[in-house]
Amino acid sequence: MTDSRNLLLQAERQCQQRGARFTPIRRRVLEMIAEASGALKAYDLLDRLADEHASARPPTVYRALEFLIDQGLVHRIESLNAYVACPCPEHSHGFQLLICRLCGRVEELHLEDVNAQLADCAQQLGFRVERQTIELLGRCDACGDTDG
Prior knowledge:
two-stranded antiparallel ribbon, WH_DNA-bd_sf, iron, 2 domains
């Protein structure tokens, strides 16, 4: 779980510096994601948000998620179609995610040598990378060798 209070303060500062509107709904969606023990799906967020805002609809959540991703505050886990807070939004480039398939814990890595190698290979092949997501699925130490 990410320290949600610090993450929200950092998000506010970052959005203010960039001139991006950090609306109450965007803030609440980020807060819910940051407080979760694992990744959350959009409809889980919608259910929680609808309890607080009767007018919340899928486009509300998806627009908030799109904004948070664009600002580097949230990552979409492609393999799970779920979202997790970015613990270090100051990193605006490639990252790697370790995802426990049993408990859903997600850890973020920034292995610059991996990013550089991928960028070099892509460039050699005449490809321009616009977004990079590397997901490693396995088991965390807490889940150990249990079957699941």
